[in-house]
Amino acid sequence: MLAAGTFAQASFATIGIGLPAIAPAIRDSLGLSLAEVGALLSSHWLGTLVTLVPWGFLTDRVGERLVLALGLGVCGLLLVGAGRADSFWGLYALLFVSGAAGASVNAATGRAIMGWFGVSERGLALGIRQAAVPVGGLLGAIVLPFLTVGQAYASLGAFCLVAAVAGAVLIRDPAEIPRQVTEVDWSVRDGRLVRLCAVSGFFVVAQMAVLSFVVLYLHDERGLGKGEAAAVLGAVQVAAMVLRVAAGRWSDTRGSRVDPLGQIGLAMTGTLAVATTLLDGPLVLLVPAFVVAGALAMAWNGLAFTAVAELAGRARSGAALSVQQTVLSLAAVATPIAFAAVVSVGSWMLAYGLAALFPLAGWIVLRPLRER
User: Fold this and answer.
1) pLDDT by residue (tens digit) across 283-317?
2) Which class does domain 2-171+184-370 fall in?
Protein backbone atom coordinates (compact mmCIF):
# COMPACT_ATOMS: atom_id res chain seq x y z
CA MET A 1 0.00 0.00 0.00
CA LEU A 2 2.70 2.49 0.99
CA ALA A 3 4.82 1.52 -2.01
CA ALA A 4 1.90 1.94 -4.43
CA GLY A 5 0.97 5.33 -2.99
CA THR A 6 4.57 6.50 -3.03
CA PHE A 7 5.07 5.34 -6.62
CA ALA A 8 1.91 7.12 -7.78
CA GLN A 9 2.89 10.33 -6.01
CA ALA A 10 6.39 10.20 -7.50
CA SER A 11 5.04 9.84 -11.03
CA PHE A 12 2.81 12.88 -10.70
CA ALA A 13 5.45 14.93 -8.87
CA THR A 14 7.93 14.37 -11.67
CA ILE A 15 5.80 16.63 -13.85
CA GLY A 16 5.61 19.74 -11.68
CA ILE A 17 8.92 19.34 -9.86
CA GLY A 18 10.90 17.76 -12.70
CA LEU A 19 9.99 20.03 -15.60
CA PRO A 20 11.97 23.02 -14.26
CA ALA A 21 15.09 20.93 -14.93
CA ILE A 22 14.49 21.38 -18.66
CA ALA A 23 13.09 24.91 -18.48
CA PRO A 24 15.91 26.27 -20.69
CA ALA A 25 15.18 23.61 -23.33
CA ILE A 26 11.43 24.30 -23.21
CA ARG A 27 12.14 28.01 -23.62
CA ASP A 28 14.46 27.47 -26.57
CA SER A 29 12.18 24.95 -28.33
CA LEU A 30 9.29 27.42 -28.57
CA GLY A 31 11.18 30.73 -28.36
CA LEU A 32 9.52 31.75 -25.10
CA SER A 33 10.09 34.71 -22.80
CA LEU A 34 10.84 34.27 -19.09
CA ALA A 35 7.24 35.20 -18.28
CA GLU A 36 5.92 32.55 -20.70
CA VAL A 37 8.21 29.93 -19.16
CA GLY A 38 6.84 30.86 -15.73
CA ALA A 39 3.29 30.52 -17.06
CA LEU A 40 4.01 27.07 -18.51
CA LEU A 41 5.60 25.88 -15.27
CA SER A 42 2.50 27.01 -13.40
CA SER A 43 -0.06 25.57 -15.86
CA HIS A 44 0.19 22.08 -14.39
CA TRP A 45 -0.49 23.49 -10.92
CA LEU A 46 -3.39 25.58 -12.21
CA GLY A 47 -5.01 22.43 -13.54
CA THR A 48 -4.77 20.75 -10.15
CA LEU A 49 -6.34 23.81 -8.56
CA VAL A 50 -9.54 23.31 -10.54
CA THR A 51 -10.14 19.65 -9.65
CA LEU A 52 -8.52 18.92 -6.29
CA VAL A 53 -11.65 19.45 -4.20
CA PRO A 54 -13.95 17.41 -6.50
CA TRP A 55 -11.37 14.58 -6.55
CA GLY A 56 -11.18 14.70 -2.74
CA PHE A 57 -14.93 14.45 -2.24
CA LEU A 58 -15.13 11.69 -4.84
CA THR A 59 -12.39 9.78 -3.01
CA ASP A 60 -14.39 9.92 0.22
CA ARG A 61 -17.38 8.49 -1.63
CA VAL A 62 -16.00 5.79 -3.93
CA GLY A 63 -12.56 5.02 -2.49
CA GLU A 64 -8.96 5.53 -3.46
CA ARG A 65 -8.28 2.90 -6.10
CA LEU A 66 -10.77 4.03 -8.75
CA VAL A 67 -9.99 7.71 -8.30
CA LEU A 68 -6.22 7.23 -8.52
CA ALA A 69 -6.28 4.90 -11.53
CA LEU A 70 -8.72 7.02 -13.53
CA GLY A 71 -7.11 10.39 -12.91
CA LEU A 72 -3.49 9.33 -13.26
CA GLY A 73 -4.23 7.26 -16.36
CA VAL A 74 -5.82 10.21 -18.17
CA CYS A 75 -2.93 12.43 -17.04
CA GLY A 76 -0.43 10.03 -18.61
CA LEU A 77 -2.22 9.99 -21.96
CA LEU A 78 -2.36 13.79 -22.09
CA LEU A 79 1.35 14.09 -21.34
CA VAL A 80 2.18 11.79 -24.23
CA GLY A 81 0.17 14.19 -26.39
CA ALA A 82 2.05 17.19 -24.96
CA GLY A 83 5.19 15.91 -26.66
CA ARG A 84 3.62 16.83 -30.00
CA ALA A 85 2.58 20.37 -29.05
CA ASP A 86 4.15 23.00 -31.29
CA SER A 87 2.83 26.21 -29.72
CA PHE A 88 2.75 27.90 -26.34
CA TRP A 89 -1.02 27.68 -25.98
CA GLY A 90 -1.24 24.09 -27.19
CA LEU A 91 1.35 22.99 -24.65
CA TYR A 92 -0.25 25.13 -21.95
CA ALA A 93 -3.66 23.50 -22.51
CA LEU A 94 -2.30 19.96 -22.39
CA LEU A 95 -0.29 20.61 -19.21
CA PHE A 96 -3.30 22.29 -17.62
CA VAL A 97 -5.67 19.39 -18.31
CA SER A 98 -3.07 16.78 -17.35
CA GLY A 99 -2.68 18.53 -13.99
CA ALA A 100 -6.45 18.55 -13.54
CA ALA A 101 -6.63 14.81 -14.17
CA GLY A 102 -3.58 13.76 -12.18
CA ALA A 103 -4.63 15.77 -9.12
CA SER A 104 -6.57 12.69 -8.05
CA VAL A 105 -3.29 11.33 -6.67
CA ASN A 106 -3.03 13.89 -3.89
CA ALA A 107 -6.17 12.98 -1.98
CA ALA A 108 -6.30 9.29 -2.92
CA THR A 109 -2.82 8.23 -1.82
CA GLY A 110 -2.87 10.24 1.40
CA ARG A 111 -6.26 8.91 2.42
CA ALA A 112 -5.21 5.33 1.72
CA ILE A 113 -2.12 5.60 3.91
CA MET A 114 -4.17 7.24 6.68
CA GLY A 115 -6.25 4.07 6.89
CA TRP A 116 -3.36 1.62 7.07
CA PHE A 117 -1.06 3.28 9.65
CA GLY A 118 -1.65 4.23 13.28
CA VAL A 119 -0.94 7.63 14.79
CA SER A 120 2.45 6.61 16.21
CA GLU A 121 3.79 5.67 12.77
CA ARG A 122 1.72 7.89 10.51
CA GLY A 123 4.19 10.75 10.43
CA LEU A 124 6.92 8.47 9.12
CA ALA A 125 4.58 6.76 6.64
CA LEU A 126 3.29 10.01 5.20
CA GLY A 127 6.83 11.40 5.29
CA ILE A 128 7.91 8.52 3.07
CA ARG A 129 4.92 9.12 0.81
CA GLN A 130 5.75 12.83 0.61
CA ALA A 131 9.39 11.97 -0.07
CA ALA A 132 8.03 10.73 -3.39
CA VAL A 133 7.82 14.37 -4.50
CA PRO A 134 11.59 15.00 -4.39
CA VAL A 135 12.12 11.47 -5.74
CA GLY A 136 10.10 12.51 -8.78
CA GLY A 137 12.02 15.76 -8.97
CA LEU A 138 15.33 13.92 -8.77
CA LEU A 139 14.32 11.57 -11.57
CA GLY A 140 13.34 14.56 -13.64
CA ALA A 141 16.61 16.37 -12.96
CA ILE A 142 18.67 13.28 -13.83
CA VAL A 143 16.79 11.94 -16.85
CA LEU A 144 14.95 14.78 -18.59
CA PRO A 145 17.97 16.95 -19.57
CA PHE A 146 19.26 14.06 -21.69
CA LEU A 147 16.03 13.80 -23.71
CA THR A 148 14.47 16.00 -26.34
CA VAL A 149 11.49 18.02 -25.12
CA GLY A 150 9.08 15.68 -26.91
CA GLN A 151 10.75 12.59 -25.44
CA ALA A 152 10.63 14.17 -21.99
CA TYR A 153 6.85 14.59 -22.09
CA ALA A 154 6.37 11.07 -23.47
CA SER A 155 8.50 9.65 -20.66
CA LEU A 156 6.50 11.55 -18.04
CA GLY A 157 3.29 10.20 -19.54
CA ALA A 158 4.56 6.62 -19.53
CA PHE A 159 5.60 6.96 -15.87
CA CYS A 160 2.08 8.09 -14.92
CA LEU A 161 0.44 5.28 -16.89
CA VAL A 162 2.54 2.61 -15.18
CA ALA A 163 1.77 4.13 -11.77
CA ALA A 164 -1.96 4.19 -12.56
CA VAL A 165 -1.92 0.46 -13.32
CA ALA A 166 0.10 -0.27 -10.17
CA GLY A 167 -2.35 1.72 -8.05
CA ALA A 168 -5.35 -0.08 -9.54
CA VAL A 169 -3.80 -3.44 -8.71
CA LEU A 170 -2.31 -2.79 -5.27
CA ILE A 171 -4.39 -0.16 -3.42
CA ARG A 172 -7.14 -1.49 -1.17
CA ASP A 173 -9.49 0.02 1.42
CA PRO A 174 -9.09 -1.19 5.03
CA ALA A 175 -12.26 -3.25 5.41
CA GLU A 176 -12.83 -2.28 9.03
CA ILE A 177 -13.12 1.46 8.35
CA PRO A 178 -16.41 2.39 6.65
CA ARG A 179 -16.84 5.54 4.59
CA GLN A 180 -18.86 8.32 6.22
CA VAL A 181 -19.78 10.41 3.25
CA THR A 182 -22.47 12.45 4.99
CA GLU A 183 -19.93 14.54 6.92
CA VAL A 184 -17.29 15.42 4.38
CA ASP A 185 -18.43 19.03 4.05
CA TRP A 186 -17.13 19.62 7.62
CA SER A 187 -13.62 20.01 6.24
CA VAL A 188 -14.30 23.39 4.65
CA ARG A 189 -15.69 24.91 7.85
CA ASP A 190 -13.03 24.10 10.46
CA GLY A 191 -10.93 27.12 11.50
CA ARG A 192 -7.89 25.00 12.33
CA LEU A 193 -7.93 23.56 8.83
CA VAL A 194 -8.12 27.05 7.37
CA ARG A 195 -5.08 28.07 9.41
CA LEU A 196 -3.06 25.01 8.38
CA CYS A 197 -3.97 25.63 4.75
CA ALA A 198 -2.84 29.24 5.00
CA VAL A 199 0.48 28.15 6.50
CA SER A 200 0.96 25.65 3.68
CA GLY A 201 0.27 28.37 1.13
CA PHE A 202 2.88 30.69 2.64
CA PHE A 203 5.49 27.95 2.86
CA VAL A 204 5.07 26.76 -0.72
CA VAL A 205 6.01 30.20 -2.10
CA ALA A 206 9.62 29.70 -0.99
CA GLN A 207 9.56 26.15 -2.31
CA MET A 208 8.37 27.15 -5.77
CA ALA A 209 10.77 30.09 -5.95
CA VAL A 210 13.73 27.76 -5.56
CA LEU A 211 12.48 24.76 -7.53
CA SER A 212 11.11 26.67 -10.51
CA PHE A 213 13.97 29.10 -11.09
CA VAL A 214 17.23 27.81 -9.61
CA VAL A 215 18.17 26.08 -12.89
CA LEU A 216 17.37 29.14 -14.99
CA TYR A 217 19.23 31.46 -12.64
CA LEU A 218 22.36 29.36 -12.44
CA HIS A 219 22.36 28.79 -16.21
CA ASP A 220 21.50 32.30 -17.42
CA GLU A 221 23.07 34.49 -14.74
CA ARG A 222 25.98 32.43 -13.41
CA GLY A 223 27.05 30.58 -16.55
CA LEU A 224 26.53 26.97 -15.48
CA GLY A 225 25.76 24.45 -18.20
CA LYS A 226 22.23 23.09 -18.42
CA GLY A 227 23.34 19.73 -17.02
CA GLU A 228 25.31 21.34 -14.21
CA ALA A 229 22.41 23.58 -13.21
CA ALA A 230 20.02 20.61 -13.32
CA ALA A 231 22.44 18.69 -11.08
CA VAL A 232 22.02 21.39 -8.43
CA LEU A 233 18.26 20.84 -8.57
CA GLY A 234 18.92 17.09 -8.27
CA ALA A 235 21.00 17.69 -5.14
CA VAL A 236 18.10 19.67 -3.66
CA GLN A 237 15.80 16.70 -4.29
CA VAL A 238 18.17 14.20 -2.66
CA ALA A 239 18.50 16.31 0.47
CA ALA A 240 14.74 16.93 0.53
CA MET A 241 14.02 13.18 0.44
CA VAL A 242 16.08 12.68 3.57
CA LEU A 243 14.58 15.67 5.35
CA ARG A 244 10.97 14.70 4.60
CA VAL A 245 11.40 11.23 6.06
CA ALA A 246 13.39 12.57 9.03
CA ALA A 247 10.78 15.26 9.70
CA GLY A 248 8.02 12.66 9.73
CA ARG A 249 9.89 10.48 12.18
CA TRP A 250 10.73 13.54 14.30
CA SER A 251 7.04 14.44 14.53
CA ASP A 252 6.15 10.86 15.59
CA THR A 253 8.75 11.04 18.34
CA ARG A 254 7.60 14.48 19.48
CA GLY A 255 3.94 13.50 19.33
CA SER A 256 3.29 16.76 17.45
CA ARG A 257 3.15 17.80 13.81
CA VAL A 258 2.73 21.52 14.45
CA ASP A 259 5.86 22.28 16.51
CA PRO A 260 8.31 20.78 14.00
CA LEU A 261 6.37 22.48 11.20
CA GLY A 262 6.95 25.89 12.79
CA GLN A 263 10.64 25.29 13.38
CA ILE A 264 11.16 24.25 9.77
CA GLY A 265 9.37 27.42 8.66
CA LEU A 266 11.84 29.61 10.53
CA ALA A 267 14.76 27.63 9.10
CA MET A 268 13.35 28.15 5.59
CA THR A 269 13.35 31.91 5.98
CA GLY A 270 16.89 31.95 7.37
CA THR A 271 18.46 29.72 4.75
CA LEU A 272 16.75 31.34 1.78
CA ALA A 273 17.82 34.75 3.07
CA VAL A 274 21.40 33.49 3.19
CA ALA A 275 21.15 32.17 -0.38
CA THR A 276 19.74 35.51 -1.50
CA THR A 277 22.69 37.44 -0.09
CA LEU A 278 25.04 35.07 -1.95
CA LEU A 279 23.40 35.40 -5.40
CA ASP A 280 26.34 37.40 -6.72
CA GLY A 281 28.88 35.60 -4.55
CA PRO A 282 31.21 32.69 -5.30
CA LEU A 283 29.52 29.61 -6.73
CA VAL A 284 31.30 27.46 -4.17
CA LEU A 285 29.15 29.20 -1.54
CA LEU A 286 26.01 29.89 -3.54
CA VAL A 287 25.39 26.33 -4.74
CA PRO A 288 25.45 24.74 -1.24
CA ALA A 289 23.29 27.60 0.04
CA PHE A 290 20.70 26.89 -2.66
CA VAL A 291 20.79 23.15 -1.90
CA VAL A 292 20.19 23.72 1.83
CA ALA A 293 17.50 26.36 1.26
CA GLY A 294 15.76 24.25 -1.37
CA ALA A 295 15.84 21.08 0.72
CA LEU A 296 14.37 22.85 3.75
CA ALA A 297 11.77 24.49 1.50
CA MET A 298 10.60 20.96 0.64
CA ALA A 299 10.94 19.41 4.10
CA TRP A 300 7.66 20.59 5.60
CA ASN A 301 5.04 19.15 3.23
CA GLY A 302 4.66 15.77 4.92
CA LEU A 303 4.12 17.39 8.33
CA ALA A 304 1.43 19.72 7.02
CA PHE A 305 -0.19 16.87 5.09
CA THR A 306 -0.27 14.65 8.19
CA ALA A 307 -1.59 17.43 10.42
CA VAL A 308 -4.50 18.08 8.07
CA ALA A 309 -5.31 14.39 7.63
CA GLU A 310 -5.30 13.72 11.37
CA LEU A 311 -7.42 16.76 12.06
CA ALA A 312 -10.07 15.53 9.63
CA GLY A 313 -10.02 11.82 10.47
CA ARG A 314 -9.84 9.15 7.81
CA ALA A 315 -13.48 9.27 6.68
CA ARG A 316 -13.15 12.95 5.78
CA SER A 317 -9.43 13.12 5.00
CA GLY A 318 -9.92 13.02 1.23
CA ALA A 319 -11.94 16.24 1.28
CA ALA A 320 -9.71 17.93 3.86
CA LEU A 321 -6.51 17.07 2.01
CA SER A 322 -7.99 18.28 -1.25
CA VAL A 323 -8.80 21.65 0.32
CA GLN A 324 -5.21 21.97 1.56
CA GLN A 325 -3.79 20.89 -1.78
CA THR A 326 -6.00 23.43 -3.54
CA VAL A 327 -4.44 26.20 -1.49
CA LEU A 328 -0.98 24.82 -2.30
CA SER A 329 -1.82 24.72 -5.99
CA LEU A 330 -3.13 28.28 -5.92
CA ALA A 331 0.15 29.49 -4.40
CA ALA A 332 2.14 27.27 -6.77
CA VAL A 333 0.33 28.79 -9.75
CA ALA A 334 0.84 32.37 -8.62
CA THR A 335 4.46 32.09 -7.49
CA PRO A 336 6.27 31.42 -10.81
CA ILE A 337 4.28 34.14 -12.55
CA ALA A 338 4.80 36.68 -9.77
CA PHE A 339 8.45 35.71 -9.31
CA ALA A 340 9.21 36.16 -13.01
CA ALA A 341 7.44 39.54 -12.97
CA VAL A 342 9.50 40.74 -10.00
CA VAL A 343 12.71 39.63 -11.72
CA SER A 344 11.68 41.47 -14.90
CA VAL A 345 10.90 44.78 -13.18
CA GLY A 346 13.37 44.45 -10.32
CA SER A 347 16.06 41.84 -9.82
CA TRP A 348 16.70 38.23 -8.87
CA MET A 349 17.82 39.37 -5.43
CA LEU A 350 14.56 41.23 -4.83
CA ALA A 351 12.49 38.23 -5.96
CA TYR A 352 14.31 35.73 -3.76
CA GLY A 353 14.38 38.18 -0.85
CA LEU A 354 10.61 38.57 -0.98
CA ALA A 355 10.14 34.81 -1.25
CA ALA A 356 12.18 34.34 1.95
CA LEU A 357 9.62 36.37 3.91
CA PHE A 358 6.68 34.08 3.21
CA PRO A 359 7.72 31.18 5.50
CA LEU A 360 8.10 33.72 8.29
CA ALA A 361 4.52 34.84 7.67
CA GLY A 362 3.46 31.19 7.81
CA TRP A 363 5.23 30.73 11.13
CA ILE A 364 3.29 33.70 12.54
CA VAL A 365 -0.04 32.28 11.31
CA LEU A 366 0.83 28.89 12.84
CA ARG A 367 1.60 30.21 16.32
CA PRO A 368 -1.95 29.88 17.78
CA LEU A 369 -1.96 26.17 16.92
CA ARG A 370 1.49 25.69 18.47
CA GLU A 371 0.32 27.26 21.72
CA ARG A 372 -2.57 24.81 22.21
Assistant:
1) 999 999 999 999 999 999 888 888 887 877 666 66
2) mainly alpha
- In this prediction the pTM is 0.75
* Domain range summary for the chain, segments of one domain joined by +: 2-171+184-370
Report the Cα–Cα distance between both ends of the chain, in Å, rounded. 33
